[in-house]
Amino acid sequence: MQFSFEQAAGQFLNPKNVGDAAEPSFVGRATSFTCGAALRISLHIDESQRITEAKFKAAGCSILVVSASLLTDEVVGKTTGEAAALGQRPDVLEAIVRGGPENRADCAALVCEALLSAIASYSGSVRDEWNGDEALICTCFGVSETTIAREIQEKQLRTIADVTRECNAGAGCRSCYPLIEDILDDQKRVNGE
Amino acid sequence: MIYLDNNATTRVAPEVYAAMQPYLTEHYGNPSSAHSLGRQMKAAVERAREQVAQLIGAADPGEIVFTSCGSESDNWAIGGFLEQNPTRRHIITTRVEHEAVRNLCEHLAQIGCEVSWLEVDENGELNLDALRNALRRDTGIVSVMLANNETGVLFPIEEIGRIIRKQSDAAFHVDGVQAVGKIPIDLKTLDVDLFALSGHKLHAPQGVGALYIRGGVQLPPFIIGGSQERGRRAGTSAVANIVGLGAACELAGNFEGHDELERLRNRLEDEILKGIPNARLNGAADRTKRLPNTSSISFEYVEGENILAHLDSLGIAVSTGSACHSTTKQSSPTLRAMNVPYSAAQGAIRFSLSRYNTAAEIEQTLKVLPEVISKLIEMSPYDEELKALYAAHGSLRRS
After folding, report:
1. Model-level pTM greater than 0.90?
2. Measured distance CA(A71)–CA(A94) in Å, rounded
3. Which residues pair with B5 in a beta bridge?
4. Is A90 helix (H, G, I), strand (E, B) or coil?
5. Interface of B with A in 291-310 (CB under 8 A)
6. Which chain B residues are Cβ-neighbours of A110 within 8 angstroms?
7. How many Cβ atoms are within 10 Å of B388's Cβ, its own excluded?
8. Strand locations in B79-205, DSSP E?
9. Does the beta-carbon distance from A36 to B331 stay under 8 Å?
10. What is the largest CA-CA distance in chain B?
């Protein structure tokens, strides 16, 4: 995905997705103690973990507002895992930062922080509902070893990024990366590689 | 464009341009040359010196030295005095000075000087007892601005000068850049040794300023070289610019619209504070303590840069109180020194008027501003705080 400054300029004065997502929604907030900017992102997420609505409210510079406008636009239709993967890459918003005033990478990072916080609040609620007795590998998104192994086997996944895309595992704090790596290796062994 | 950013810079007055124009075309020659062309240029420079001296009430035009800008004047005044008096290493200044003084003093503190920073209260005013306590036997120089560039708050330089004279041998430098042309100044009646001014704040072009050096005060030259400005500031005189500064000073001295200008500012300020619930004034509410052209108003819980962008798209130029576009990304040191909360400092807008603003422009600004603020309030994540503010405002208006 690539954002351009031209895209940004159009949303400068009329940002998209201002407001709050329909209830029940999951909210993430971020505040900068350097410049005082604040924003919140709210997400409405369906049963298949897909974001159906993303809205924001912000008191921050134009770069922040435009970044929030673009990012909320981008995550609609994506699974929470795909959105989280996007949120971990503030550099995708770099084009806006480059076209605008200097030293604004933090502004884009703040938007990503709010998005990840909203997704974390969602995954937190999912985890609360978790009542299975199998081992949880990705605690952020409540994905079990069985699910990960099945996804890898059925879809012939090769990398952690593949796993994250298909079932959200690894999209949060990433502390389960070594465990996912182990499962990938196990599956390769099973397949005689 | 409705230009309400006159504390940043002003448009060159047509009269000033007309006065300068011959010195960019048919009149040429180096004012230091002995031939008639040079003498003509020299005469123009000396006439400008008289015009500047007249506006600020200098006792003698010889006390005026032309520089390239206000920052140069400030740097020369403070740095030069310390160079001239190497045993006096103590400086007193305020927390809310323009960068030309503030950053210079921070630099001087790093290279061995001691700086006492005077705090301001929430109105942006000084406590003069703090000055009395800070003055010492070895204090070299006290530097205080006359008018704050962001809030327009005036410092009582008459009283400050008296206190300094009574208690110490320190020199008194005043950064007058933001005040000259806006309020009457009569330096011969004040205990001021050095006074900086800048042309582009009063409808002269950018690139010319002056430093008033009271007779008897010694400063080493800021630029070492030729004997221009009686050896005090080398470099070929920028004659056209200097003529422009002189003409602008004369124009300011003859300006009769001060009351009307202040009336426009008051109307703008009153209506905004009355009509927009999250608006709050930065600086003393008592208008006699502020410049007559400046209003710094914070719109709480929204962002100044956004307000600026929207107003710009609607043909209105203002400036923000945040220095978010600078490398520090922090809100203005002046507003922080005044203890303005983050949520308000972030939404600070400075409106600064000039003689060229009209009543129609102010009405147009008052018409579009509430719409811009409403739009940004819709976008603000501080829903609860804003709801409370608007509820309080509603009940105030009903009662």
Report:
1. no
2. 12
3. B352
4. helix
5. 301-303, 305-306, 309-310
6. none
7. 12
8. 90-94, 114-118, 139-145, 171-175, 194-198
9. yes
10. 77
Is B324 one of the catalytic residues?
A: yes
Please name which of B261, B362, B260, B247 lies closest in space to residue B13, comparing C-alpha atoms.
Answer: B247
Chain A residues 104-163 with CB within 8 Å of chain B: 106
Residue B393: both structure tokens together: 């405002």
- At B56, which amino acid appears? I
Q: Which two tokens stand for residue A15?
A: 């940002």
Token reading at B189: 């009646």
pLDDT in tens, B9-48: 999 999 999 999 999 999 999 999 999 999 999 999 999 9
**Average pLDDT over chain B, rounded to an integer:** 94
Q: Residues near B377 by Cβ (< 8 Å), separated by ≥ 6?
A: B278, B301, B302, B386
pLDDT at B322 over 90: no
Contacts of A183 by beta carbon, 8 Å cutoff, 6+ apart: A137, A145, A148, A149, A152
B228 and B237 Cβ atoms separated by less than 8 Å: yes
Distance from C-alpha of B389 to C-alpha of B399, rounded to nearest angstrom = 16
Cβ within 8 Å of B, A 7-46? 12-13, 15, 18-19, 29, 34-40
